[in-house]
Amino acid sequence: MTAPSVLVTQHGPQVPPGYLEPALIAAGVDYEIVPLHTGSPVPGVAGWDGIVSLGGAMGAYDEVEYPYLSAEKELLRAAVAAHVPVLGLCLGCQLLADALGGRAYQADLPEIAFTTIPLTADGAADPVLGVLTGPTLTFHQDTWDLPPGAVLLATTEMYPQAFRFGSAVGIQPHPEAPPELVAEWITSEVGERHLVAAAVDGRAVVAAMEDARDESEAMAGRVFAAWLAEVRRYAVEPPE
After folding, report:
1. What is the helix (H) or strand (E) element at residue 224, kind and residue range?
2. Average pLDDT over all residues of the chain
3. Closest Cα partner for 11 from 53, 61, 74, 52?
């Protein structure tokens, strides 16, 4: 069997694939990271067995400033319609929710924490999200409404955190982010503004991530391996 092909869309130099990339390599899939922020065109859905949409500092509603977001939403809609597995992380989750008939919008307060995300019963039973059982990073200023027909997989007291819609899984947190990347986020202009608004000590968040680095990296590997296993299953036997 030919190795599955996975498309990864990146929205800025500050939001790389992180722990996702070694998982892609370990799974033996062919993958391409497309830096949309540099002007690379949004690919079509044909030829891809899986699509990952990474995070970003912009909002899913910022199509005027970032026109490629509209094209990316069309790609995500087309992928779900074609039963291609999609994984949306943070901004990617918001884009996915918006593309599927939900709504992405600026939240009342940023949510920044390194904590275990409470799963719903559906989330615990989900083959991908059910693996997200340990502390992971939430770092976002936007939230989303659940798309019609989607299943809520996780939520905190503040905001929804994950959902599934057919072949697509949206995850608001950042399981892909290592602590050294988050150390850059908390010293950026945008990051500092969010930390002040959320009344959170960013250095304490990074320190907690450093303490749990091995466990978090291993859990991220399991989450991405579970999603990539789904990519392989869909490639072999697509749903009706």
Report:
1. helix 213-236
2. 96
3. 53
